[in-house]
Amino acid sequence: MSVLPIRIYGDAVLHTPAETVDEITDEIRELVADMYETMAAAPGVGLAAPQVGVGKRMFVYGWEDEHGTEHRGVAINPRLWQAPLVPESFAELEEDEEEGCLSVPGERFELRRSPAVLLEATDLEGKPYELRAEGWLARILQHEYDHLDGVIYVDRLAVPSHKQAFKIMRKRGWNVPGKSWLPGEEKLEG
Ligand code: ZN
């Protein structure tokens, strides 16, 4: 197993819809093991294959809720249904709606997400499963699922957060191809 470099916003693979996983091969199993290790090293609560440069429809997640229950898994070829936002959903954003992304490291912005989702996916044994999630886990699943469609959460931000995010990225020299960082190393590469 190894920790993989994480691509930074601007790298083409992050902005391209990923392809279906046709078969769960040893290569896929190894990739998943590396993704778990990379997510733990980052550290993060989710990591999608495009973030480590692989344009495949799969992600891992790992998050401990306030009761100490660990939610951890791999979603291969997932489908996601989101509960619709009702008018009350468009009230002011709150601080606990802050989201971050390992491909925009060190930054967090508030984003409204659907409060509940249903995920259908295949596990590493090729077995289909369903996962119903609310709250933070629902947010994680929406965030990771977005990655498979080439969408990063900062793309969804409303003005003025959107402007602010792109200003910060420009300052850091991001939003250009070929940048990555390796968890465990201090400096950004590329
Ligand atoms: Zn992300």
TrEMBL record:
The keyword Signal does not apply. InterPro entries: Peptide_deformylase, Peptide_deformylase_sf. Binds 1 Fe(2+) ion. Its cofactor is Fe(2+). The active site is at residue 144. GO terms for molecular function: peptide deformylase activity. Fe cation binds at residues 101, 143, 147. It is an enzyme of class 3 (hydrolase). Keywords: Hydrolase, Iron, Metal-binding, Protein biosynthesis. It catalyses: N-terminal N-formyl-L-methionyl-[peptide] + H2O = N-terminal L-methionyl-[peptide] + formate. Its EC number is 3.5.1.88. Gene3D superfamilies: Peptide deformylase (3.90.45.10). Removes the formyl group from the N-terminal Met of newly synthesized proteins. Requires at least a dipeptide for an efficient rate of reaction. N-terminal L-methionine is a prerequisite for activity but the enzyme has broad specificity at other positions. Belongs to the polypeptide deformylase family. This is Peptide deformylase.
